[in-house]
Amino acid sequence: MKYTTEFRNSEIAQALLTRIRQGSRKKVRFMEFCGGHTVAIFRYGIRQLLPKNIEMISGPGCPVCVTATADIDKAIALSQIKGVIVTTYGDMLKIPGSRSSLQKARADGADVRMVYSTLDALQIAKENPTKSVAFLGIGFETTAPTVAASIIEAQEQEIKNYFVLSQNKLSPPAIKAILQSGEIKLDGLICPGHVSAITGSRVWDFIARDHKIPCVVAGFEPVDILQCINMLVNQVEAKLSKVEIAYGRGVIPQGNQIALNIMSQVYEPANARWRGFGVIPGSGLKIRKAYRNYDAEVRFEIKTKPAAEPKGCLCGEVLRGVNTPLDCKLFGKVCNPETPVGPCMVSSEGTCSAYFLYGDEFER
Amino acid sequence: MNDKILLAHGSGGKLAHDLITKNFITALDNEILIRMDDAAVFTASGRMAFTTDSYVVSPIFFPGGDIGRLAVCGTINDLSTSGAKPFYLSLAFIIEEGFAINDLQQIIASIKTTADEAGVKIVTGDTKVVNRGCADKIFINTAGIGVIPDGVNISGSNAQPGDKVIITGTIGDHGIAVLSQREGLGFTTQLKSDVAPLGKMVAHMLEVSRNIHSLRDPTRGGLASTLNELAQQSEVSIRIEENKIPVRDEVNGGCEMLGLDPLYVANEGKMVVIVVPEDARGVLKALQQNVYGKNAAIIGEVITGRPGRVVMKTTLGSSRIIDMLVGEPLPRIC
């Protein structure tokens, strides 16, 4: 797998940094939406290399982090139903719900299994015909098509014991919510690379057009990110606001039509609750009536008690970009990767986890 | 001959006796084991090193090795971290009922090959069989005894500012090779585990320099965790450079796919060497002449600074803290 060495090339990175330092005059604040970008920015120490007038803040693009406590509780409750095998991506296991986590539920006897793809979940359903296998649909547009495809596959193969608890979310409504709230002022947006590979870069047009904020879609290697920041700086200095792509090897304006078709075949947009945001209209993906036999919410009566948020945890504010983990009294003290209080410390893409693992000594 | 392990194979009765004589004693043949006493008896003198470890890797056969080779190498390498020359190993199996005897024979053959390569003897052993479902296929425990040459004083507490830090080859090979075989992952790669007995390589280093301060094999938790342990034990700081750390393209690629960092991925045939700066070049040269040290590199140095702190200069020129591994993202890789 090449494509990593070239995009980690130190000389190209230095050249881009020089351009950024020379070209950037105004004091600006850029947000990276995606948790993958947050981790890469920290891992390569990009913040410390940028000139002081460029402030970087992290956004809500960590799918596990934005999953509301009530929805975690629902997944745990589902694992308590007799005969149900819950399948999920690994990151979800440790996320604390109100009273437990999937990991603790598993230790107490629930059948919770980590999978790497929906195909594994389908396979488990085939191998356990007397059980019901539920997959936790978590993630943005990047994973939603694969979950949708698994439902279509289950129908074609007549697998009747496979269900999806759909908690997938759409990214543009979250950005819209941040911009409309007016809580923070942004001068540029690093748009998510993998999401845009599916949606196309056009979904961000409204930000450039209506909010006059420069947008650049970026990949996840250091050279990708520096290239993106350089393009944002150029737009800011030239007083432009348009959507550009700094990730040409992955993204085109119109997106992946096949994936988009599969998504809209299986899902319809619905309201969804987000940690830190509350309900964002049209930001969720509900399984359409035609596929209701695969909807875990339809198949099972999932009972949960009212959700209880962890006291003092600032994950919600961190996800909106209003606070950084350093503002949180729990950060690094009671809340660390070993004993996480909130999801942003658990997820490998979480902002708190990135600050903790990679932050320099001034940030500890 | 029954081709599966039965509970009776671990009972101490006739079936057990047959299993031991036909498979273990014959295959592992040496003058101490062949006496078949309950305790191995041998003569040794000098400062001793003694260690034990258990092996539960899944799958038991993986590219580049198997649980048997791993069980021998792991214990030899732990002995080698003290500078000891490994001599004798014990070998205990916990086997799940129904395990294929063919597989057991293959594992024992691999144990024999590895022990011969390293010049160690398996001198005592034990076998238990548990009901189906009470263990996953086969678990192995080995313990080992070695003798430390005169004048050698190696410890994780001995690193001093100014010392150079060497890694004896590419990192992450074992972890990614094993993960590539896991059920549900199944990506194909040419990559092989680096599992290897490092006793002879360590002896070669000690011939070149008696000023090696610390040795440690970066197994679970990877290079990052090992450097943290050494920095904490010696109450020093360690600075490494990202672009000097040897990593295979396949490991980088596998890590990208799995969302891992090679710094935290396990090795089973590597050593971190901390040595006085004057001897670093000589040790590196000695390592590079060894089959298991061809890709050795000096990756950084010990510095004064916050005790326990490991810092890495990234390829971009920024620096970041390298912390211990937290949690267990890769269960059962050794």
Structure, explained:
The complex is a heterodimer of chains A (364) and B (334). Chain A is α/β, with parallel strands linked by helices and 364 residues long. Chain A contains 17 helices and 11 strands. In chain A, the strands form 3 sheets. A 5-stranded parallel β-sheet of chain A has the order 2-1-7-8-9. Chain A has a 4-stranded parallel β-sheet with strand order 4-3-5-6, sandwiched between helices. Chain A has a two-stranded antiparallel sheet with strand order 10-11. The longest helix of chain A is centred in the middle third of the chain and has 16 residues. Chain A is globular. In chain A, 53% of the residues are buried. Chain B has 334 residues and is an alpha+beta fold. Chain B has 2 domains: 142 residues, 60s Ribosomal Protein L30, Chain: A (2-Layer Sandwich); 158 residues, PurM-like C-terminal domain (Phosphoribosyl-aminoimidazole Synthetase, Chain A, domain 2), CATH 3.90.650. Chain B is 30% helix and 23% strand. In chain B, helix 2 packs parallel to helix 3 and helix 5 packs across helix 8. The chains are: A alpha/beta (364), B alpha+beta (334). The interface between A and B is medium-sized, with 34 and 25 residues.
Descriptors for this entry?
heterodimer, A: 364 residues, alpha/beta, five-stranded parallel beta sheet, 39% helix, globular, B: 334 residues, alpha+beta, 60s Ribosomal Protein L30, Chain: A, Phosphoribosyl-aminoimidazole Synthetase, Chain A, domain 2, 2 domains, seven-stranded mixed beta sheet, four-stranded mixed beta sheet, 13 strands
